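Hello Y.,

Per our agreement to keep a running log of every chain we model this quarter, I'm adding this entry. I've kept the format consistent with earlier entries: sequence first, then predicted structure.
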Amino acid sequence: MGHCFIADGWGALLRRHDLDTFEALWRLPEQWVEPPNVRRGGWSGVTRMTLEGVTLYVKRQQGQRRRFGHRPWCSRPTYYHEFLALNRLSRLGVPVVEWLLYAEQDGAAILVTRAPSGFVDLKTLSEMSNGPRLQAGASRLGDALARMHALRWQHGACYPAHFLIHPETLAVRMLDLERCRRRRSRMAASTADLDQLTRRAGFLPPPVLARIVDAATAAARPVAARIF
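Predicted structure for the entry above:
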Protein backbone atom coordinates (compact mmCIF):
# COMPACT_ATOMS: atom_id res chain seq x y z
CA MET A 1 0.00 0.00 0.00
CA GLY A 2 1.37 3.43 -0.93
CA HIS A 3 0.90 6.95 0.36
CA CYS A 4 1.40 10.27 -1.42
CA PHE A 5 1.03 13.72 0.14
CA ILE A 6 1.40 16.93 -1.87
CA ALA A 7 1.70 20.32 -0.19
CA ASP A 8 -0.90 23.00 -0.95
CA GLY A 9 0.05 25.08 -3.94
CA TRP A 10 2.52 22.64 -5.49
CA GLY A 11 0.31 20.02 -7.12
CA ALA A 12 -0.16 21.91 -10.39
CA LEU A 13 3.59 22.37 -10.94
CA LEU A 14 4.31 18.70 -10.30
CA ARG A 15 1.44 17.56 -12.52
CA ARG A 16 2.58 19.75 -15.41
CA HIS A 17 5.84 17.81 -15.40
CA ASP A 18 4.25 14.40 -14.65
CA LEU A 19 6.07 14.23 -11.32
CA ASP A 20 3.15 13.93 -8.93
CA THR A 21 3.40 10.17 -8.27
CA PHE A 22 5.82 7.88 -6.50
CA GLU A 23 6.51 5.91 -9.66
CA ALA A 24 7.41 8.95 -11.76
CA LEU A 25 9.79 10.36 -9.16
CA TRP A 26 11.39 6.99 -8.47
CA ARG A 27 12.23 6.62 -12.16
CA LEU A 28 14.17 9.90 -12.32
CA PRO A 29 17.82 9.55 -13.44
CA GLU A 30 20.18 8.76 -10.59
CA GLN A 31 22.28 11.89 -10.94
CA TRP A 32 23.18 12.08 -7.27
CA VAL A 33 24.31 15.33 -5.62
CA GLU A 34 26.77 13.15 -3.69
CA PRO A 35 27.31 9.38 -3.45
CA PRO A 36 24.27 7.62 -1.93
CA ASN A 37 24.38 6.84 1.78
CA VAL A 38 24.45 3.07 2.29
CA ARG A 39 23.67 2.02 5.88
CA ARG A 40 21.15 0.19 8.06
CA GLY A 41 20.67 -2.39 5.35
CA GLY A 42 19.43 0.18 2.85
CA TRP A 43 20.40 3.30 0.93
CA SER A 44 19.38 6.91 0.39
CA GLY A 45 20.38 9.50 -2.19
CA VAL A 46 19.53 13.03 -3.32
CA THR A 47 19.18 14.52 -6.80
CA ARG A 48 18.63 18.15 -7.74
CA MET A 49 16.34 19.44 -10.48
CA THR A 50 14.77 22.71 -11.61
CA LEU A 51 11.13 23.07 -12.70
CA GLU A 52 10.02 26.43 -14.10
CA GLY A 53 12.74 28.26 -12.20
CA VAL A 54 12.13 26.42 -8.90
CA THR A 55 15.07 24.30 -7.71
CA LEU A 56 14.06 21.11 -5.93
CA TYR A 57 15.81 18.32 -4.06
CA VAL A 58 14.40 14.83 -4.62
CA LYS A 59 15.40 12.51 -1.78
CA ARG A 60 14.92 8.78 -2.40
CA GLN A 61 15.55 5.93 0.00
CA GLN A 62 15.03 2.20 0.33
CA GLY A 63 15.24 0.07 3.45
CA GLN A 64 16.27 2.78 5.93
CA ARG A 65 13.81 2.98 8.80
CA ARG A 66 13.49 4.54 12.23
CA ARG A 67 11.35 3.50 15.20
CA PHE A 68 8.89 5.78 16.95
CA GLY A 69 9.93 6.80 20.45
CA HIS A 70 6.43 6.27 21.86
CA ARG A 71 5.85 3.09 19.80
CA PRO A 72 9.19 1.27 19.62
CA TRP A 73 7.58 -1.74 17.94
CA CYS A 74 6.66 0.42 14.92
CA SER A 75 9.04 1.87 12.32
CA ARG A 76 8.72 3.94 9.16
CA PRO A 77 11.23 5.26 6.59
CA THR A 78 13.47 7.96 8.04
CA TYR A 79 12.17 10.37 5.38
CA TYR A 80 8.70 9.93 6.86
CA HIS A 81 10.04 11.18 10.18
CA GLU A 82 11.61 14.14 8.39
CA PHE A 83 8.32 14.84 6.62
CA LEU A 84 6.53 14.93 9.98
CA ALA A 85 9.17 17.22 11.46
CA LEU A 86 8.95 19.67 8.55
CA ASN A 87 5.17 19.85 8.96
CA ARG A 88 5.21 20.28 12.71
CA LEU A 89 8.07 22.75 12.95
CA SER A 90 6.88 24.97 10.10
CA ARG A 91 3.46 25.27 11.77
CA LEU A 92 5.21 26.25 15.02
CA GLY A 93 7.21 29.01 13.35
CA VAL A 94 10.58 27.25 13.24
CA PRO A 95 12.41 28.19 10.01
CA VAL A 96 12.75 24.93 8.08
CA VAL A 97 12.91 24.23 4.35
CA GLU A 98 9.65 23.84 2.45
CA TRP A 99 8.40 20.39 1.43
CA LEU A 100 6.42 19.74 -1.76
CA LEU A 101 5.72 16.01 -1.74
CA TYR A 102 6.14 12.92 0.38
CA ALA A 103 5.44 9.47 -1.08
CA GLU A 104 5.98 5.98 0.27
CA GLN A 105 5.59 2.55 -1.30
CA ASP A 106 6.77 -0.95 -0.35
CA GLY A 107 9.35 0.26 2.15
CA ALA A 108 10.75 2.94 -0.16
CA ALA A 109 10.21 6.66 0.37
CA ILE A 110 10.56 9.94 -1.52
CA LEU A 111 10.69 13.44 -0.06
CA VAL A 112 10.77 16.50 -2.32
CA THR A 113 11.86 19.83 -0.82
CA ARG A 114 12.47 23.28 -2.24
CA ALA A 115 15.99 24.69 -2.28
CA PRO A 116 15.81 28.17 -0.70
CA SER A 117 16.98 30.67 -3.31
CA GLY A 118 20.18 32.52 -2.52
CA PHE A 119 20.90 30.71 0.74
CA VAL A 120 24.31 29.24 1.62
CA ASP A 121 25.39 26.87 4.37
CA LEU A 122 27.10 28.04 7.55
CA LYS A 123 30.63 27.25 6.37
CA THR A 124 30.14 29.09 3.09
CA LEU A 125 28.76 32.09 4.94
CA SER A 126 31.87 32.14 7.14
CA GLU A 127 34.02 32.26 3.99
CA MET A 128 31.94 35.06 2.45
CA SER A 129 31.49 37.28 5.49
CA ASN A 130 33.38 38.36 8.56
CA GLY A 131 33.09 40.76 11.46
CA PRO A 132 29.66 42.16 12.34
CA ARG A 133 27.84 40.48 9.43
CA LEU A 134 28.97 36.99 10.40
CA GLN A 135 28.23 37.74 14.05
CA ALA A 136 24.72 38.83 13.11
CA GLY A 137 24.20 35.66 11.08
CA ALA A 138 25.38 33.60 14.05
CA SER A 139 22.85 35.34 16.28
CA ARG A 140 20.03 34.60 13.83
CA LEU A 141 21.00 30.93 13.73
CA GLY A 142 21.14 30.81 17.52
CA ASP A 143 17.69 32.42 17.70
CA ALA A 144 16.29 29.76 15.33
CA LEU A 145 17.77 26.97 17.45
CA ALA A 146 16.39 28.59 20.60
CA ARG A 147 12.90 28.64 19.09
CA MET A 148 13.10 24.94 18.24
CA HIS A 149 14.56 23.96 21.60
CA ALA A 150 11.96 25.98 23.50
CA LEU A 151 9.41 23.58 22.00
CA ARG A 152 11.58 20.64 23.20
CA TRP A 153 12.51 19.60 19.65
CA GLN A 154 16.05 18.42 18.97
CA HIS A 155 17.42 18.68 15.43
CA GLY A 156 19.46 15.52 15.90
CA ALA A 157 21.96 16.19 13.09
CA CYS A 158 23.26 19.61 14.09
CA TYR A 159 25.95 19.93 11.40
CA PRO A 160 27.01 23.20 9.72
CA ALA A 161 25.85 21.91 6.31
CA HIS A 162 22.30 21.54 7.66
CA PHE A 163 21.87 25.24 8.39
CA LEU A 164 21.29 27.66 5.52
CA ILE A 165 21.59 31.43 5.91
CA HIS A 166 20.88 34.13 3.35
CA PRO A 167 23.98 36.34 3.04
CA GLU A 168 21.91 39.53 2.66
CA THR A 169 18.76 39.08 4.73
CA LEU A 170 20.37 36.63 7.23
CA ALA A 171 17.18 34.56 7.15
CA VAL A 172 17.74 30.98 8.35
CA ARG A 173 16.46 27.64 7.08
CA MET A 174 17.09 24.23 8.66
CA LEU A 175 17.18 20.98 6.69
CA ASP A 176 17.88 17.23 6.98
CA LEU A 177 15.57 16.57 9.92
CA GLU A 178 15.47 12.77 9.67
CA ARG A 179 16.68 12.45 13.28
CA CYS A 180 14.57 15.25 14.71
CA ARG A 181 12.71 14.23 17.85
CA ARG A 182 10.94 15.58 20.91
CA ARG A 183 12.92 15.57 24.16
CA ARG A 184 11.76 15.63 27.76
CA SER A 185 13.12 19.12 28.33
CA ARG A 186 14.38 22.17 26.48
CA MET A 187 17.76 21.71 28.14
CA ALA A 188 18.12 18.15 26.84
CA ALA A 189 17.35 19.23 23.28
CA SER A 190 19.66 22.25 23.45
CA THR A 191 22.60 20.45 25.06
CA ALA A 192 22.62 17.60 22.54
CA ASP A 193 22.37 19.88 19.50
CA LEU A 194 24.92 22.44 20.64
CA ASP A 195 27.42 19.72 21.58
CA GLN A 196 27.14 18.38 18.03
CA LEU A 197 27.49 21.80 16.44
CA THR A 198 30.48 22.95 18.48
CA ARG A 199 32.36 19.73 17.63
CA ARG A 200 31.83 20.25 13.89
CA ALA A 201 32.07 24.02 13.51
CA GLY A 202 35.74 24.42 14.37
CA PHE A 203 36.18 26.57 11.25
CA LEU A 204 34.26 29.38 12.98
CA PRO A 205 36.17 31.99 15.00
CA PRO A 206 35.54 31.33 18.71
CA PRO A 207 33.56 34.59 19.20
CA VAL A 208 31.21 33.62 16.35
CA LEU A 209 30.61 30.14 17.72
CA ALA A 210 30.07 31.65 21.17
CA ARG A 211 27.47 34.00 19.65
CA ILE A 212 25.48 31.03 18.32
CA VAL A 213 25.59 29.27 21.69
CA ASP A 214 24.69 32.44 23.59
CA ALA A 215 21.71 33.19 21.37
CA ALA A 216 20.54 29.56 21.44
CA THR A 217 20.66 29.35 25.25
CA ALA A 218 19.62 32.90 26.22
CA ALA A 219 15.96 31.99 26.62
CA ALA A 220 16.84 29.09 28.90
CA ARG A 221 18.93 31.14 31.32
CA PRO A 222 17.21 32.38 34.49
CA VAL A 223 16.75 36.12 34.75
CA ALA A 224 17.94 37.74 37.96
CA ALA A 225 15.18 39.27 40.05
CA ARG A 226 15.17 43.03 40.23
CA ILE A 227 15.14 44.63 43.66
CA PHE A 228 13.12 47.80 44.06
